Amino acid sequence: MSDLPPPWYEPSERAGLRIWHGFATARVMVALAVLLLQLLVHLMGQDLHPTFIALCVVYLGATLFVRIAMHPRSSETPLSRLWVPTIGTDLIAFSAMQMLQPGGMNYTPLLGLPVLMAAVLGTRRTALATTAAVTLLLLAEVCVSWLRSNNPLAAQFAQAGLTGTGYFLVTFLVHPVAARLAREENLAREGQQSALVQAQVNEVVIASLGDGVLVLDDHDNVRAANPAARVLLDQAVKVALPFSLAGSPAWRPLVELARRTFAQGAGGDALTADVALEYEGSGPRRLHLRARLTPPRDFSATQLCVMFLEDQRESEARLRTEKLAAMGRMSAAVAHEIRNPLAAIVQANQLLDEELTDPSQKRLAQMVRQNAQRLARITEEVLDVSRAQQQFHFDAATIALDDTAGAVCLDWHVQAGKGCSLQFVPGAPRLSVEFDGDHLRRILINLLDNALRYISSHDDALQVRTWTTPSQALLEVWSDGAPLEPTVAERLFEPFFSSDSRSSGLGLYICRELCDRHGAAIGYRRIERPTSRGMLAGNAFTLAFRPFAVTPATLPFDTIAP
């Protein structure tokens, strides 16, 4: 037999507590039965023995107190604290009943209760000690009877020895069984706890998946669905589990794939399908489906179909993003390698131009210079994209919006915009924003360079203005160019996209990346602005900065003239 106590008394172990409560209740019932038996005997004509009745009442009170107020603690050895109020009390009470009993009744069979209780709930040592104590009490009772009668009681001694031997056999048989059941229960509880933890982890993981996950039975009922699957199923967002896929015609492709999966069985490969779910009031939703059956655990287990739903638009968007990232890395490497030879070409062309006198040759040198400068700009834009993607954190900087924007407009007009008129309309003279000054300069120069290609020759064809709302500061670059085509407007901020063959398609993409790094936003819209020709529609690129602080600022000018 194992010397380890069965850990019955953990508060969470309901089976162990039931056994303890069962024994405690049995003791109360035995005490109550003995007392009622004495009352019944009295009704049948036998006199009551006051001492015996008092003993029965005290024993009943003791058992009730243990049943109601006492229970084992998980931190103690079983019965270490409760041996005296339970088994010890039973031994004393039953022995006293046998000695004080007024008639010819035998109360020694009641000693089997503490023996059984010690064998089930105690350690091996406790169980053997209790059984030995019961055996000695039986022998002592026979000795007392022998001394009183002074007659040989060999049969009674043999009976006491035989009863004690039987109790020892019960102890040797019951205690190992109880200990093994306790170990099995602990193992089952550990397995249940592990399964619960695994189920909770699986639930969290599945809920956070970007792809939809459905679990279906063979009657087309959805047993489980993560949030992504509910979104892809549209109406199912408001439907409680379980629900039937047969309830909507739009889900018919899912039902067909599930039935094919069940028909194939668990031994086959996962089935896939590309389907389009048609919902009323919206376009088709293209999905890529994968389905397979759960492996069978036994012959009676119900197999389920696990179906994964992937939105093809999102997968195509991820693929495009990965391709653009790879293209960006490659372009940055190529641009870095081109920059040094290009600088040598520009320098050599400049030295050659100084020696040329023929006008035709001069024009050729100028063409070389212009195209080299264009290549240099494209190279710098590609490298700017690479730098913007690598810089995720910038030092916090606060700049006066009107001062910074006005200075950039003035510098741009002096260097690149001499042939046009630029109006700067400040509307936030005392406001500052959290933004890097060099990055704001880069954004403004890109927007002004783009607008310069499409504006008219009027004095107010190009305007830069700032203003505020209760929660934002805004900066706008407006030009009177022709409206953009819808397909072009949708892809303005994509890298390498441009409607002009002379552009690299990286300027607006760099603007958006820099705005994202600072928590700002940039957008395009077609709006009307006041001009000398009246209200005129034009193309506006607007920057919205995050909440700002008030600081003093001054402006050296209001309008930049040609």
Q: Describe it for me?
A:
The protein is of the alpha+beta class and 562 residues long. It has 4 domains: 14-190, no CATH class; 208-314, PAS domain (Beta-Lactamase), CATH 3.30.450; 317-390, Helix Hairpins (Orthogonal Bundle), CATH 1.10.287; 398-560, Heat Shock Protein 90 (2-Layer Sandwich), CATH 3.30.565. It contains 14 helices and 15 strands. The chain has helices spanning 14-43, 50-69, 84-100, 112-121, 124-149, 154-208, 227-232, 252-264, 312-355, 359-390, 401-415, 437-452, 486-490, 507-517, and strands at 212-216, 221-225, 243-244, 271-277, 285-293, 305-311, 398-400, 422-425, 431-434, 462-468, 473-479, 521-531, 534-545, 549-550, 559-560. Strands 3-2-1-6-5-4 form a 6-stranded antiparallel beta sheet. The longest helix is centred in the N-terminal third of the chain and has 55 residues, at 154-208. The protein is elongated, with a radius of gyration of 46 Å. Mean pLDDT is 77; it is low at 1-13 and 549-562.
What's the quick description here?
This protein has 562 residues and is α+β, with helices and mostly antiparallel strands.
Major sheet: 6 strands, antiparallel
Strand order of the largest sheet: 3-2-1-6-5-4
Query: Which regions have little confidence, pLDDT < 50, spanning 5+ residues?
Result: 1-13, 549-562
Give me the count of strands: 15
Structural class by secondary-structure content = alpha+beta
Using only C-alpha atoms, the radius of gyration works out to: 46 Å
Count of separate DSSP helical elements: 14
Order of helices and strands: HHHHHHEEHEHEEEHHEHEEHEEHHEEEE
How big a fraction of the residues is strand? Answer: 15-25%
Instruction: Note the gap between the termini.
Output: 105 Å
Mean pLDDT: 77
Q: Which assembly state applies to the chains in this document?
A: single chain
Domains, number: 4
User: What overall geometry do the principal axes of the alpha carbons give?
Assistant: elongated
Helix content: 40-55%
